[in-house]
Amino acid sequence: MKPQVIIIGRPNVGKSTLFNRLVGKKLALVDDQPGVTRDRRMGDAEIAGLQFTVVDTAGWEDEDELTLPGRMRKQTEASLEGADAAMFVIDSRVGLTPLDEEIGRYLRENDVPIVVVANKAEGSAGESGILESYSLGLGDPVPLSAEHGEGIADLFSALWPIIGEKADAAEAAAELQDELDEDAPLGPLKLAIVGRPNAGKSTLINRLLGEDRLLTGPEAGITRDSIAIDWQWTDPKAGPDDDGVREIRLIDTAGMRKKRNVTEKLEKLSVADARRAVDFAEVVILLLDATQGLEHQDLKIASHVLEEGRALMIAINKWDVAGQIGTDTPSGLFNGIRGALDDGLAQVRGLPLFAVSAKNGKGLDTMLRAAFEIRESWSKRVPTAALNRWFDDALDANPPPAPGGRRIKLRYITQAGTRPPRFVIFGTRLDDLPKSYERYLVNGIRAKLGFDAVPVRVTLKSPKNPYNANRGGGGNFSGGSNRT
């Protein structure tokens, strides 16, 4: 494994800005107000060929452990376990504060090697703060500006003696593994958990991991960043010739409220980050709250996932208390949600639906097993012969209509891609093909070719008209982008 370097410090000293600088992307949310980061976020960092895993952490605050800031601090403390080094970030323009000195005392009591980073050191305004940082007793500080990229070479010089040897060994091992994996099947399942605030997304992931990896609590909207965690799940029902170990990249996301209710800049950034996480995922689990049922916002989130072409599953969380709410029985609640999903998402009927409990682990293995199965469907390519047999049978069973007495001809079909499955149908007069007939074809693809509830894209293409004065050169077909 790559060496792991933790970024630690009090709120608003620029930890997330440094994280983004090292990974080369704006992965972590950054804002002027303190306390934006709440969970640990990992990323692949590189400085002049030195590769390591960098971990952004919540700002260290001196609060009771039962409060939200106190629980955030416990997450930061936990991140130091197993770390190869830590970057203690201070604000050189402000100078040392009592909280900086408290963090310094805590770090001196740990065995993790520390590099003091004096951030915001551009110009001369940070000189006094840099000098003050020597009093921490943690070695020479590294002056830099995370925002402007100044001083990163000096950071390399400070980190190399600590993690260089391990980084070289990890790089050599990765190159060897790449050679072995050239013909390997699908990689780790990229599985995102989405839903409204307080549905239990972070609690669910903690249950799967078997540790309090993500910050949780009764407060709605604790998660702000989308957090990706690599994990191995062992399928208890694997066959005798299968060790059952499955690689998964779990992605926790911020809760998505109704757009009109999202007014704060930070929440808007969090929701945008969650939407990008959906784009990154292969399979998305929409987590519902059994105590709230299915709401219109859940359907909007589901529609967004399907529009992005991701494979979608629905899980009803807090099933352990489902029988204690309202007058509905658990089975009645389940069937009611099933019916509402089929009505509200008529374009994809029969989405996988599971009753789970993040509290006691009910149904989680079944849900994960289904996630791998639906990814297989989402990634499947249909043999040409089987595809054309189905197409001919579908046309024979229900020929296209002939509006105005002129027949619509559907000539053949081909699969253009996977993930999600995309098909192109060639024919003539396709502008007159009713939407109902398109739905007939898409439903047939799902039912007969094994795509079940996977989102399917169908594009209709007609031959170019040789008498069209505006036609372009090259190619025999143009046209349509009717997405279903």
Descriptive overview:
GTP 2 binds at residues 195-202, 252-256, 317-320. Belongs to the TRAFAC class TrmE-Era-EngA-EngB-Septin-like GTPase superfamily. EngA (Der) GTPase family. Residues 3-167, 189-379 form the EngA-type G domain. It comes from Erythrobacter insulae. One of its GO terms (biological process) is ribosome biogenesis. The protein has 484 residues and is of the alpha/beta class. It folds into 3 domains: 4-180, Rossmann fold (3-Layer(aba) Sandwich), CATH 3.40.50.300; 189-378, 3-Layer(aba) Sandwich (Rossmann fold), CATH 3.40.50; 384-478, K homology (KH) domain (GMP Synthetase, Chain A, domain 3, 2-Layer Sandwich). It is built from 12 helices and 16 strands. The protein has helices spanning 15-23, 68-79, 98-108, 127-132, 152-180, 201-209, 265-280, 296-307, 330-344, 364-378, 384-397, 435-449; strands spanning 4-8, 41-47, 50-56, 85-91, 114-119, 142-143, 189-194, 227-234, 245-252, 283-289, 311-317, 353-355, 409-417, 422-428, 457-463, 477-478. The strands form 3 sheets. The protein has a 6-stranded mixed sheet, sandwiched between helices. A 6-stranded mixed sheet has the order 8-9-7-10-11-12, sandwiched between helices. It has a 4-stranded mixed sheet with strand order 13-14-15-16. Helix 11 crosses helix 12 (435-449). The model is unreliable at 29-36, 179-184 and 469-484 (pLDDT under 50).
Main sheet overview: 6 strands, mixed
Architecture of the largest domain, according to CATH?
A: 3-Layer(aba) Sandwich
CATH level 1 class label of the largest domain: Alpha Beta
Strand order of the largest sheet: 2-3-1-4-5-6
3D shape: elongated
> Which series of helices and strands comes N to C?
EHEEHEHEHEHEHEEHEHEHEHHEEHEE
Q: How many structural domains are formed by the residues? A: 3
The beta-strand count equals 16
CATH fold annotation of the largest domain: Rossmann fold
Helix and strand composition category: alpha/beta
Write the CATH homologous superfamily of the largest domain. Answer: P-loop containing nucleotide triphosphate hydrolases
The number of helical segments is 12
What percent of the residues sit in helical stretches (DSSP H or I)? 25-40%
Subunit organisation of the chains: single chain
- Report the C-alpha radius of gyration, rounded: 27 Å
Taking the alpha carbons of the first and last residues, their distance comes to 43 Å
Strand content: 15-25%
What is the average of the pLDDT values?
82
- Low-confidence segments, given as residue ranges, are 29-36, 179-184, 469-484
Keywords: GTP-binding, Nucleotide-binding, Repeat, Ribosome biogenesis
GO molecular function: GTP binding
Binding site for GTP 1: 9-16, 56-60, 119-122
Organism: Erythrobacter insulae
